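testing teh design pipeline on a random one, pls ignore if ur not involved
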């Protein structure tokens, strides 16, 4: 079996001939990326180690990395990795070496951490609906989720049911919904509070369904529907209508990761999740089920025996590199030059010799192009791993179907440790034994998984009641023009642009041609196209358009848990 390991809700499962399995959770079909994976596997590959611009041996590349690491203080060294590959051995296990030597770590906040923490505060866990609940639901309300593009198997179970979409533009999913509401950026919390107010005032909702209801009552007493209309840009009738639809359909609420990447996203996620609670529906929402499976990610990273010297917010990496606080960066499983705020500063510092940048990647990404040392890695089609999903409940023992190119992440970690002269339990423990230990909480052994290939895990969902104790009044977003990002049907973030290309134009409401976007951190001239799907005050960029260098103007701001509010990037415009 093979499991697509990308940062995606679906985690498609394929047979040995790379055909999508017909059963749950893949239902016999995959996305445009899955259909092109075999083709992409043979293009734009990094095939040999590169050391300071020339081909070199693996041994020389390893020596150069270790030599640099030994010459610096641990807090000046940062490892950067994220969800480019969701395999346990690919993403999590390699951090053991870096934790053992005491380097700095990121806070892993670039995507979903804001929402996870917000839901844990209200519900005790971010876990919500799974495949069975999606089948059972008779309607869905999607907030900040372009699910028809980014969550196709969830959409497969939604598409024939009543769908309500709340978003900042008329996305592909909004256009396919029975009802959609286009709101001002970062006003989701206000709308959620308005919906709760209407539900309670009309007798549809009951605040006693949550702990500490007086806190929620205090908030809804402080706002009027008129206030909510002013902040969101909706009419008062729209707000009442949305509450009425919630009352009538009792939709399963899908909270997109985009909500956590907005101004005041933490509070918005909390308030949205309380709508089903007030209706008496309990945990009738979906965000991510990563933490219901019982996988011990901390054990895989070695945090039980070693800790990083410090933690750097992913929003702050580019800024810290620019200030000289980080002098060496080791990157795998991510493309920070294009995806982190001020990521262009990483490339500039590496090219100017102010930063030692080492990258382990299967492909020649923008981060690889800027690297001091680059080492080729195999793709998921070329190696064994254990893969999980954050929507469905299946673990997959991934087996290679293509010849291996490069060195795997555990192999490189051990090569670095050997060259370093590091003897430590974290690097001495067999990688597969570490996986077996990390799986104990799932109730599945590695032996069972190897035998069965795909095993369904019983999710662990707490039965605790939600609490409104910590919810607060939503912050009012500033007026202005906002740059927002949306999923694209042919790319996962910046992946697959070598196969399908990427949109060269951004979408706007009232202008067509060349325009310069400006923030306090830089400016960028781009092409924009007029679209009636985009409201005034919003510029929409599909995520693969990060290839244009859009992150160079994204401020290094942090949400409550560190997540950069990239979907609240306020820009000034200069037209020719």
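output:
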């Amino acid at each position: 079996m093979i499991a697509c390991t990308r940062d995606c809700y679906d985690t498609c499962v394929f047979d040995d001939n790379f055909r999508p399995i017909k059963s749950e959770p893949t239902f016999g079909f995959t996305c445009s990326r899955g259909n092109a994976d075999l083709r992409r596997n043979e293009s734009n590959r990094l095939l040999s180690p590169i050391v300071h611009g020339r081909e070199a041996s693996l041994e020389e590349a390893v020596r150069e990395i270790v030599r640099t690491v030994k010459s610096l203080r641990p807090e000046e060294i940062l490892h950067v990795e994220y969800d480019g590959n969701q395999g346990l051995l690919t993403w999590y296990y390699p951090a053991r070496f870096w934790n053992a030597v005491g380097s700095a770590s990121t806070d892993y906040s670039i995507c979903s951490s804001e929402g996870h923490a917000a839901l844990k505060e209200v519900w005790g866990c971010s876990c919500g609906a799974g495949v069975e609940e999606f089948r059972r639901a008779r309607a869905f309300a999607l907030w900040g989720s372009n699910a028809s593009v980014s969550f196709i198997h969830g959409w497969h179970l939604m598409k024939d049911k009543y769908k309500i979409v709340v978003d900042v533009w008329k996305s592909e999913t909004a256009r396919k919904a029975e009802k959609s509401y286009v709101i001002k950026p970062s006003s989701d919390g206000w709308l959620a509070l308005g919906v709760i107010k209407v539900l309670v005032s009309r007798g549809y909702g009951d605040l006693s369904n949550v702990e500490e209801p007086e806190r929620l009552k205090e908030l809804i007493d402080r706002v009027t529907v008129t206030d909510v209309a002013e902040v969101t840009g909706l009419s008062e009738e729209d707000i009442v209508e949305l509450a009425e639809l919630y009352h009538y359909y009792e939709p399963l609420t899908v909270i997109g990761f985009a909500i956590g990447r907005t101004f005041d996203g933490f509070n918005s996620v909390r308030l949205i999740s309380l709508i089903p609670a007030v209706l008496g529906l309990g945990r009738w929402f979906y965000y991510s089920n990563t933490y219901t499976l019982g996988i011990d990610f901390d054990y895989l990273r070695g945090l039980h025996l070693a800790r990083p010297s410090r933690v750097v917010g992913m929003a702050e990496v580019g800024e810290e590199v620019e200030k000289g606080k980080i002098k060496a960066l080791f990157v795998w499983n991510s493309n920070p030059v294009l995806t982190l705020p001020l990521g262009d500063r990483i490339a500039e510092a590496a090219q100017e010799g102010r930063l030692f940048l080492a990258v382990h990647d299967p492909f020649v990404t923008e981060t690889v192009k800027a690297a001091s040392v680059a080492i080729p890695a195999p793709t998921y089609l070329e190696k064994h791993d254990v893969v999980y999903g954050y929507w469905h409940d299946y673990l997959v023992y991934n087996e290679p179907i293509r010849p291996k190119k490069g060195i795997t992440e555990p192999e490189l970690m051990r090569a670095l440790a050997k060259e370093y002269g590091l003897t430590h339990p974290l690097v001495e423990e067999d990688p597969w034994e570490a996986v077996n230990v990390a799986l104990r909480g799932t109730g599945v052994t590695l032996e069972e998984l190897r035998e069965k290939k795909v095993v369904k895990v019983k999710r662990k969902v707490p039965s605790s009641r939600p609490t409104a104790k910590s919810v607060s009044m939503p912050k009012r977003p500033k007026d202005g023009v906002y740059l927002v990002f949306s999923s694209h049907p042919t790319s996962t973030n910046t992946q697959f642009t070598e196969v399908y290309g990427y949109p060269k134009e951004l979408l706007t409401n009232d202008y067509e041609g060349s325009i310069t976007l400006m923030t306090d951190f830089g400016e960028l001239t781009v092409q924009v196209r007029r679209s009636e799907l985009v409201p005034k005050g919003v510029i929409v960029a599909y995520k693969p358009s990060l290839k244009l260098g859009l992150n160079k103007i994204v401020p290094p701001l942090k949400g409550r848990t560190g997540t950069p509010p990239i979907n609240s990037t306020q820009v000034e415009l200069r037209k020719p």
